[in-house]
Amino acid sequence: MLAVADYASRHGIHVIALTGRPSSTLGELSDTEICTPAGQYADRVQELHIQVIHILIELVERELFPENY
């Protein structure tokens, strides 16, 4: 994952990262970091990431298809 983010950054591609702890290496390589710190349990972080993804999808759909809302 770090190699991909580094490659993208070097090639002008905007990097958005979902992370589970502040100041992670991936977050530092990213242009936009969405951090959901939920302690030491990866499953909790993943549950929060799922919610973030659903919210982002709805925001994109509302922008692209406002007639559906």
Would you give an account of this structure?
This protein has 69 residues and is mostly helical. Helices cover 54% and strands 12% of the residues. The chain contains three helices and two strands. It has a two-stranded parallel sheet. It is flat, with a radius of gyration of 14 Å.
Structure at a glance:
The chain has three helices and two strands. It has 69 residues and is mostly helical. Helix 2 links the parallel strand 1 (16-19) and strand 2.
Structural class: mainly alpha
Radius of gyration, in Å, reads 14 Å
- Classify the beta-strand content into a percent band: 5-15%
Q: What is the count of helical runs? A: 3
- Mass-distribution shape: flat
DSSP summary, beta strand count: 2
Could you give a short account of the major beta sheet? 2 strands, parallel
Low-pLDDT parts are none
Helix and strand succession? HEHEH
Helix amount: 40-55%
Please give the alpha-carbon distance between the first and last residues. 36 Å
Number of domains: 1
- Mean pLDDT equals 94
Strand order of the largest sheet: 1-2
What is the fold's blueprint, element by element?
Layout: H1 2-10, E1 16-19, H2 25-29, E2 32-35, H3 42-64
Parallel strand pairs: 1-2
Keywords summarizing the entry:
single chain; 69 residues; mainly alpha; two-stranded parallel ribbon; 3 helices; flat
